[in-house]
Amino acid sequence: MPAAGITIANRLMRYKLLAITLIMFGFGFALVPFYDEICRVTGVRELFKANEPVVENTQVDTTRKIALEFDANTQRLGWTFHPLESHVDVHPGQVTQVVYEVRNTQNREITGQAVPSYGPERAGQYFQKLECFCFRQQTLGPGEVRQMPVVFIIDPNMPKDLNTVTLSYTFFEVAGVQKKPG
Amino acid sequence: MSAVIDNHAPAHGHDSHDHGDHHGAPHGLMRWVTTTNHKDIGTMYLWFSFIMFLVGGVMALTIRAELFEPGLQIVSPEFFNTMTTYHGLIMVFGAIMPAFVGFANWLIPLMIGAPDMAFPRMNNWSFWLLPPAGILLMSSFLLPGGAAGVGWTMYAPLTSQMGPGMDTTIFAVHLLGMSSIMGSINIITTILNMRAPGMTMMKMPMFVWTWLITAYLLIAVMPVLAGAVTMTLTDRHFGTSFFNAAGGGDPVLYQHIFWFFGHPEVYIIAIPAFGVVSQVIPAFSRKPLFGYASMVYATSSIAILSFIVWAHHMYTVGMPVAGQLYFMYATMLIAVPTGVKVFNWVATMWKGSLTFETPMLFALGFLFLFTLGGFTGLVLSLVPVDVQLQDTYYVVAHFHYVMVAGALFSAFAGVYFWFPKWTGKMYDEKLGKIHFWLTLVFFNMIFFVQHFLGLAGMPRRIPDYNPQFTEFNQISTIGAFGFGLSQLLFLYILLKAIKSGKPAEQKQWDGADTLEWTHLPTPMPYHTFENPPTVK
Ligand SMILES: [Cu+2]
Q: Under CATH, what is the fold of the domain A66-173?
């Protein structure tokens, strides 16, 4: 420590300023509970709170029948990909499962991600998917075959003019996912 | 008030020159390693920052080269991300901040009539923490996974997914923070305790005032940044969940803590730049600074206001409208003291006998372009506009007008202004002016067009873009290479002046009136004001 020649006044000042520094370091951590409290008071984190108590008719609406068509594509990816049934008729509110089959025709491990699209587009918001292979990336070893389900309910609120809906999936290769070395 | 400092006590054994010999610098490499002389340390800060400026500049050119055409040509997207990250970190923490600390070291003791800084040995440490921090930053490029491509803001949760390059970056930020804090403690103590008799607070040159305010800002917010990166570190390795939503944390919390540091940081960079300009403009107007007291109050209010506006960087994170409105109005309020400052600089020139040597040209370039950057800042403070422009090139253009045309131009003005005093050699005025005009034209070529790119919706930090943006990006890239090459001219001007510059006069600029010009010979002796001057 540089002791010689440093006046007492300067040394005192240094301790004061060091104390401010330490207090501000603590202040950074004090912001953590502070923000928690602010968020609780203002309710900014309650993004998923239901707007209204949802007491809706959950019955299957047998008065309507909707024709669903299933489509499957791959985008520059060495996989074959198709639904086991290409067409089903469902009632709104009815839990439905369809199965897709995918086969890796390449000699290497490939990771893919399926992206859904809907025709017409606005039908998408009435598809309530309970389970879907598109929720996560799929990794297939060389030549591997996999059957993958989609489980969904068509929302009974779907507009009456939508009678035929196409659900289409496209698989893209996820670049940059490499096999762990060794 | 004037403390006598024995800053070269031979008891420390770091230099062998006789204690009575006060008029020569020791020789050899160890002089620079062990020096506690504020002039030596100031010089090292300035050269360090210039080297970092070139390193960060090469990174900027890599970014601009990749953006010359749409599509991916030169670097991978991951490497592009590391370039934007380290360009920002190195320019902010390695180039601009140390440059102004260099000015502070050189000038504060001279301007207030003190023999040296209050804690000369701590001053040496402050500087010598920087090279290890720089090496640590650069070494992350060699680690598995490469350097961290998280942006200079180091937002969670991306920071928790990065490789070991993130850890070296965090440690580098710790070192840089310690260096700034020690430097600030030194500066505050020097200014408050070591002024020459008669040098009252309200007689201090504006540059000293701006550094006093900046140093307080630094000790207030650098520890908060240290806290934020420490939380990131413990989230990564020690199982805490400050920012990890899966463990009950909140990534938005990081942004709040970071910008609590980040907005004052903008003024940590800008306020010393204001200080340099406040010395240069009066000198070349041959008039005292207009509205000195209002300048002091305006600068202090800017510093205080800077603590309560941070969330204008995060309008889109999902905060209540009341919060957005508060941060919007508070931010717009900062335009008032800033306007006072700009008014005072202009009023200083009013009816002055102006001459336009290189330092004045850079100060005027600062005045025009910084004000323009201030205006785009005002535009961005508006919530509905910012929601559109967030993370576009409009923001990039805005803060480069403030950081480059503001801080960097001011640093150039300062180097040209004090270089003759420091070295006793005069630079080549004609080359200096060429350097200014090249810098000015190429600067606008890079960044003016980026306003339009941003308004058209080009996002920042992405290596590819829609082909409709091609022409303006090409103009920007050509400007960037011109700008980079112009800075080599600056290096040449400095080296030429050091080697064969004409001897400078004691008072090279007739309008300069601070103690270093009026009381000290040129070239500057190694030790100054061992007997404090009396200020009337
Ligand atoms: Cu800000």
A: Ctag/Cox11 (Pfam 04442) (2.60.370)
Closest by Cα among B210, B371, B220, B215 to B296: B210
Contact at 8 Å (CB) between A25 and B224?
yes
Q: Quick one: which H or E segment has residue A14?
A: helix A8-42
Cβ atoms of B156 and B254 within 8 Å: the answer is yes
Could you tell me the pTM of the whole model?
Answer: 0.79
H/E stretch holding A18? helix A8-42
Go through the domains of chain B in sequence order and give each one's CATH number: 32-525 (1.20.210.10)
Q: What is the pLDDT along chain B (536 residues), one digit of tens a residue?
A: 333 333 333 333 344 343 444 456 677 778 888 899 999 999 999 999 999 999 999 999 999 999 999 999 999 999 999 999 999 999 999 999 999 999 999 999 999 999 999 999 999 999 999 999 999 999 999 988 888 899 999 998 899 888 889 999 999 999 999 999 999 999 999 999 999 999 999 999 999 999 999 999 999 999 999 999 999 999 999 988 899 888 888 899 999 999 999 999 999 999 999 999 999 999 999 999 999 999 999 999 999 999 999 999 999 988 888 889 999 999 999 999 999 999 999 999 999 999 999 999 999 999 999 999 999 999 999 999 999 999 999 999 999 999 999 999 999 999 999 999 999 999 999 999 999 999 999 999 999 999 999 999 999 999 999 999 999 999 999 999 999 999 999 999 999 999 999 999 888 898 888 999 988 988 888 899 988 888 87
The full set of domain ranges for chain A reads: 2-51, 66-173
**Nearest 5°: CA angle at B443, between B442 and B447?**
115
The 3-state DSSP class for residue B168 equals helix
Burial class (CB in 10 A: 0-12, 13-18, 19+), A84: exposed
Cis, bond preceding B205 (omega within 30 deg of 0): no
Residue B503, preceding peptide bond in cis (omega within 30° of 0): no
Can you give the three-state secondary structure of B179-248, one letter per residue? HHHHHHHHHHHHHHHCCCCCCCHHHCCHHHHHHHHHHHHHHHHHHHHHHHHHHHHHHHHCCCCCCCHHHC
Any B CB within 8 A of A177 CB: no
**A133: distance to nearest CA of chain B, Å?**
22
Which chain A residues in 2-61 lie under 8 Å from chain B, judged by CB atoms? Answer: 2, 4-7, 9-10, 13-14, 17-18, 20-22, 24-25, 27-29, 31-32, 35-36, 39, 42, 44-45, 47
- Residues ≥6 apart with Cβ < 8 Å to B155: B251, B254, B255, B258
Distance CA B476, CA B83 (A): 17
- Which residues make up the environment of ion ligand 1, defined by Cβ < 5 Å? B 263
Radius of gyration of chain B from Cα atoms? Answer: 23
* Euclidean distance between CA atoms A24 and A97, whole angstroms: 57
C-alpha distances (whole Å) from B2 to each of B116, B525, B536 are: 11, 20, 15
Q: Cα distance from B319 to chain A (closest Cα, Å)?
A: 7
Q: How many residues does chain A have?
A: 182
